[in-house]
Amino acid sequence: MKKLLFLFLAVPLVIFAQEQRKLSGTISSDYQVLPDVKVTVVDKEIVTASNQRGWYEIAVEKGDKVQFSSIGMKTITIMVEDVTRILNLEMSSETTDLEEVVVTKKLNKSQELLEKEFRYNPDIVKSVFRYFEPKRFVGQTRMINMDGLEHNSQCILDLLTEQLDDISRIGTCAGDGKIFIGLNSIKASPITVFDIDGQVFQDVPFWLDLRKIKRIAIVQGRYWANYYGDAALNGVVIINTTDLNALRGVVDKGRLRDNYIKEANLSEQYLAENKRRKQNQKVISGTVSDGRAPIANVNISVSNTNEATTTNEKGKYKIRAGQGDIISYSYVGLKTVNIKVEDITRILNPILIPEVTQLDEVEVTASKRRSQKDLEEDYYSNENIIKTAWGYLDADRAAGNVRFLNEEQINPVSLCILDLLRGKFAGVNVTGDCFSGGGVSIRGLNSIMNNTGAIFDVDGQIFTNAPIWLDVNSFKRIAILSNLGLTAQYGNFGRGGVVVINTTNGTLKTNNGVDQALLRNNFVSGRILTKEDIDKNKPQYLKELEASTSFEGAKGVFDKHAKAYKGSPYFHLDAYTYFTEKWKQQKYADGIIKNNYALFQNNAVLLKALAYHFDAQERFEMANTVYKEAFLLRPNYAQSYLDMANTYRDINEPKMAASMYARYQYLLEEGFMQQDTIGFGPIIEREFNNLLTLDKSAVVHSEKANELYIAEEDFAGTRLVFEWNDSEAEFDLQFVNPGKQFYTWNHSLADNEETISREKNFGYNITEYLIDGSLPGNWSVNVNYLGNKSLTPTYLKATIYYAYGSRNQRKEVKVFKLSLKDVNQELFRLQSFSKVAVR
């Protein structure tokens, strides 16, 4: 990759006649200009040095050897050819292993030092990538220091044109203006990149409060394209505001306390850092359970902070944490769970499992009571069995009366659970409505001394407020527990009674009485749920849509449900896919997304789900646009760079794909990002190598293509790549070969906490599986979805590469919506070396 980066920076050569001429250019390192570099024509008494802007000029002839040397830098010698006239050089540091090192001078300041000087040095600005001094960088730069500056500007457009002579504009501050570098706005292209306190915007920030601006830098040139992409050729406006002083971004001042112990304002800096943490914090809430019932008194803490709390008697908690913090959940006898807070994290419902201790010998004797396995097998044939947070409950053997509403008795016309229960059971009183909420009280359990309302057990998750957002059409079975013998296991907060709701997403629906124990134990001979089985558990709105016999009828069904689901991005994704695939009504389907795009904006998880759908439909330009939005939200995620590289390949822009790999490599080398050599590293290296193998001539000039080193691919066959939009998702992937042997990749905190922690630390959600052709025949891929610590679905994207690494390589993308939990379901089947995956 370093070789490729050097090729990108190499300057095209222009043909001139052989004669003595001036060789000139700019010398830099890490894109910062290098002054005082000694430039010598070897074997001739011609010597010069670069000036403070890194510029040099020296007389040369064809065949001369020009040497560039500087203390601490690797010496470079270049032969002058007949076409050489301009030579911009990038020098790198020289690393030598010495027993003793005495540092006398360092040309490039460290990020720690730049941050330290940032407050009082007006020549330093902070970008989304780093602190830097624009005047030390290659390319044109302009600076505006706002301290004490008087102006009458109404917006940033006015300010830049008033303060800088070579900046022009069109339009006004009303929101229609554009800004250009140069005085001829007709020939120039407008600036489209605005970096404000480390956030990148693509439109002129008319909304920016000029009173808060601290300093402005405008940079332009091909060097900046390595940071911001090709748009930097038109210029980048970097703005730092007074809000940045409280953020401090790159370095934790509290941890550097001893390093800066001589600073007079250390206390002020330390307090500012604490203030920054508080400002960046958000409230994380949820319920901690053991998979059956909530757990009280779970210790919850945020690593490296003083934030800590415990769950209440209902298992609920609230704690303040910031993006990047680690929340730890611990309880005696249960395995501690650590979860990293991300940009979209608001609700976390972790499940704690027992800490298993191995015993020498265990003797098991049979129970005379009906086991949970027996009740589970009978669930669909016996309507008197309900699944609770504590397991299956048989009303015929329960220690009290259990009242039921079965699937046939559930009225789909009801808007929510409150409407459904109203008037259905004697002694059950319902208050409130489906818009503002309400509650349920059960006579006999409520009194003057006990006015607690009923709680709701939904597929094993406990809610104290009525879940009015649940789709009534997904309800399979409802039970009312009003006897103290039945509610005692819910603890003190179940004293007002329990409304148990089983939905189609939380329970298995088949016609053949599948042995769930076999499925859970991964016996491949057990029945795997097919697409037809899964379809039986679809939401009611999808069943009605698919039952429509005409496009107009389907539109009527959509309009019927649109109001109830207006806040659900998942409903609109389902509808978009349906109208695209069933009726080929792309314009109508696009309108569904366009009219509800606000549901996806500013949420990288939902944006990636949308991009997955565009990928599967081969609408790669649309996917590229959405991936860019997700990238801007998560520039510090390794996955973002791979996503962008792949989407550029899809729209036939291999150079842009290569630039994303180069940018990622640069960020690794500079320490802005850390490299994962176990999970993500091998995958992105394989992807980059595949790009160079198949598109080498499109990435570099043909005369350089033969010089480019490409690692030999160590695999040939069918490659399966799996990506998921939600980092909290837990599931098991099962790969079954033609001989019915299988391998299971466990992706859960219970089985693979280290892998999930690594994914979140480095920012990626991807894995691969390689089929090398040694076992030709029918393969199948199954998934057992375990949830994502919330009640929202997860989208799994599977990319199948056939004849991987060869000139015949092609791919197929499939997207799966995962919501049915704890069952082994088939994703797809494929024939080894075939062209099409079978679903």
Short description:
It is built from 21 helices and 40 strands.
Task: Walk me through what this model shows.
There is one protein chain. This protein is of the alpha+beta class and 839 residues long. The chain has 21 helices and 40 strands. The strands form twelve sheets. It has a five-stranded mixed beta sheet with strand order 11-16-17-14-15, with no helix packed on it. The two termini are 38 Å apart.
Name some characteristics of this structure.
5-stranded mixed beta sheet; 21 helices; 839 residues; elongated; 25% strand; alpha+beta
Biggest sheet architecture: 5 strands, mixed
Structural class assignment: alpha+beta
Helical fraction equals: 10-25%
Mean pLDDT: 79
Query: Which regions contain 5 or more consecutive residues with pLDDT less than 50?
Result: 1-18, 96-107, 246-273, 358-368, 445-449, 509-523, 834-839
**What order do the strands of the largest sheet run in, or round the barrel if closed?**
11-16-17-14-15
Taken as a percent bin, the fraction of beta residues is 25-35%
N/C terminus separation: 38 Å
Strands, total number: 40
Oligomeric grouping of the chains: single chain
Enumerate how many helices there are, as a single number: 21
- Radius of gyration computed on alpha carbons: 32 Å
Shape: elongated
